[in-house]
């Protein structure tokens, strides 16, 4: 394990990188002995830095739950990060492209919890019982660490690469539709770029939320009522540039749009 001073130094580097938009060098090259648990220690301290600055936690994101995302990144296990309230935007939002580092967009479903979900042993049925509604969401990925050659350790330390969340469309009760079959068509500037089905997330997006509850239990935490949980992308990440308009069509669950300027 890395010592506390090194963990603190890395967390401070990531805070600075978010402010300057200059990514830090790969952690795995600088600290080859760094473990997954070390990276979650960095993320926890980074979160505490944000909370000390007045940011409020709105929920969590789960990453790398689908084969599409694992193949796109070369990373073969899920991870998670925290969502701050000021990073949650509504459909139709305009985002300043320069405020992100190499932003990308992913198609997801978000679960709003009405009850706590705690592990170990949390199941899909626990998640569905605890969910108030499920709604379409776009995740905007950001990078405070260099992209080329990233490992799971780099990604976790970087708060699972979360930049922002755009929510919209039609919120539904978890038993109102078969969530496995929710599909989306992702457009960039009127061109279809990606399509996907939510079953790509561990067979059912709720499995991702259960995975998170069980992972958090190992870190002494639970999913709390009122939290928004991004269940994981079921398309590959789409690179975006200044001037791009994004439109995601979820069929009966409506649509989401945002623009980068």
What topology emerges from the helices and strands here?
Elements: H1 4-20, H2 27-30, H3 36-52, E1 57-63, H4 67-73, E2 79-84, E3 88-90, E4 93-95, E5 104-113, H5 124-130, E6 131-141, H6 152-157, E7 162-167, E8 183-188, E9 191-197, H7 205-218, E10 228-230, E11 238-239, E12 245-249, E13 255-260
Parallel strand pairs: 1-10, 3-7, 4-13
Antiparallel strand pairs: 1-2, 5-6, 5-10, 5-11, 6-7, 8-9, 8-12, 12-13
Helix pairs in contact: 1-3, 5-7
Give an account of the 3D structure.
- By secondary structure, the chain is of the alpha+beta class.
- The protein has one domain (57-260): Fumarylacetoacetate hydrolase, domain 2 (Alpha-Beta Complex).
- It has seven helices and 13 strands.
- It has helices at 4-20, 27-30, 36-52, 67-73, 124-130, 152-157, 205-218; strands at 57-63, 79-84, 88-90, 93-95, 104-113, 131-141, 162-167, 183-188, 191-197, 228-230, 238-239, 245-249, 255-260.
- It is globular, with a radius of gyration of 17 Å.
Summarize the structure.
By secondary structure, the chain is of the alpha+beta class. It contains seven helices and 13 strands.
Task: Spell out the key features of this protein.
261 residues, alpha+beta, Fumarylacetoacetate hydrolase, domain 2, 8-stranded mixed sheet, 5-stranded mixed sheet, 28% helix, 29% strand
Beta strand count: 13
Going by CATH, what is the homologous superfamily? Fumarylacetoacetase-like, C-terminal domain
Strand content: 25-35%
* Portion in helices: 25-40%
Q: What is the terminal-to-terminal distance?
A: 42 Å
Class by alpha and beta content:
alpha+beta
The name CATH uses for the topology is Fumarylacetoacetate hydrolase, domain 2
Number of domains: 1
CATH C-level: Alpha Beta
Radius of gyration equals: 17 Å
Whole-number mean pLDDT:
94
Which regions have little confidence, pLDDT < 50, spanning 5+ residues? Answer: none
